[in-house]
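The following record pairs a protein chain with its ligand, zinc ion.
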Amino acid sequence: MHGSSTLGAQKILTTHSVASVVYNNISKQKELRANNRFKAGDIIIPFSAGETLIEPTYLTVQTGENEHITLVPEFLQYTNHSCRPTVFFDTTNMVLLALRDIEIMEELTFFYPSTELNMSDSFDCFCGESECLTHIKGAAFMSIDILAKYRLTDFINSKIHIKKQPKD
Ligand SMILES: [Zn+2]
């Protein structure tokens, strides 16, 4: 699961406003890839809660204590994890943000522990980035030093009490 790949190994399954769901023949995974270019800090798309659940599933994003939402628009569920993510689910403002400049057909990925505190299952990451953490768990189980390198939701920050340097 989770990996980068060449465009030739992909088949577009569905196209949506800002991104397409593509099937990656190498990783055998569905991925979300940008239809437009985005600049770092851009709002890619607002999102809202379909259902709010008290337990996480593989489709939900955590928005609070015992609060896990299914994503609307639904295609956002295909946002895979990466240890070098391109997007961030801002669950305070309910917008998907670009963390860096994103090119057309670049994969939209997020850092799983940026929203998830406790995870029912951990997983091995094959994102292929040089900084890959290999083994991904909820933020509660990751080291503060590692988490400090990532943008995290206000909820996660409130739980792990990271003091970050202010950005200029
Ligand atoms: Zn990784």
